[in-house]
Design brief:
Ubiquitin-like (UB roll), alpha+beta, single chain, four-stranded mixed β-sheet, 1 helix
Length: about 70
């Protein structure tokens, strides 16, 4: 599948580091499964992965964390 951003690269399965920010909290999640463009590096997440990341972000905010670095675990 072609990248919808650069329209030149092909998407390949891989893993990325996603950074989310909620208010004053920054959450970094490593090893997130994604389709990554081999040309521009843009990545795309499935709905399931996105829901998981948002859930982890909510947990970090509820704990009052200022910064949280996590490894992706489904």
């Amino acid at each position: 599948m072609r990248c919808v951003i650069c329209k030149q690269g092909e998407l390949k399965s891989g893993a990325v580091t996603a950074t989310l920010q909620r208010g004053e909290t920054t959450i970094i999640i490593k090893g997130v499964p994604a389709d990554v463009c081999e040309k521009c590096g843009e990545y795309f997440l499935t709905d399931e992965v996105t829901k998981h990341l948002l859930s982890r972000a909510d947990e970090a905010v509820q704990k009052g964390a200022e910064m949280e670095i996590l490894k992706y675990a489904a």
